[in-house]
Write a structure and sequence with these properties.
Strand content: 15-25%
Helix content: 25-40%
Order of helices and strands: EHEEEHEHEHE
Number of domains: 2
Largest sheet: 3 strands, parallel
Strand order of the largest sheet: 3-4-5
Length: 149
């Protein structure tokens, strides 16, 4: 393996992912500095709604879904989020494999946009990401669960 380039790497991910990334990169010889830009705080369990699927854009959101039945279908943005959903006991999990665009495509492929409401939870004023995904998936209506904070 070649030597890492000069300079350091600033890791801004929230914990515990920031420390895990720092450990991985430090083990490869990089100089790292951890400075999380976000703090992930647990929220109350989300209300259980009748849904065709839940679109998960982060493994950090999954603990709020603990009241849902193990047969609830989860469409995850990537493999790490899908793995976490499986580890939590969800049995019907699909991974989009990369990003929000791929998740929107997976939702288009798996769900009927004419009969599905696209719901999301986000901090007040932070719903633009979900609106974009749902619009890209051609869902006709939207609903939000605002979370204080």
């Amino acid at each position: 393996m070649s030597a890492p380039p000069p300079g350091g790497i600033l890791i801004t991910r929230p914990e515990p992912a920031a420390s895990a990334t720092a450990s991985l990169l430090g083990g490869r010889g990089y100089q790292v500095q951890v400075a999380p830009m976000l703090v992930i705080e647990p929220v109350p369990k989300l209300p259980v709604l009748r849904v065709q699927a839940i679109l998960a854009t982060s493994a950090n959101a999954l603990p709020a879904l603990s009241a849902y039945d193990e047969t609830t279908r989860i469409l995850a943005v990537g493999d790490a989020t899908a793995s976490q959903a499986l580890a939590m006991g969800f049995r019907r999990v699909l991974s989009a494999g990369r990003d929000a665009e791929a998740l929107a495509q997976l939702a288009r492929d798996q769900l009927n946009p004419k009969t599905v409401r696209c719901c999301w939870s986000a901090a007040a004023g932070r719903d633009c990401h979900w609106r974009w995904i749902c619009a890209r998936a051609d869902f006709a209506s939207f609903a939000a669960w605002p979370i204080a904070g």
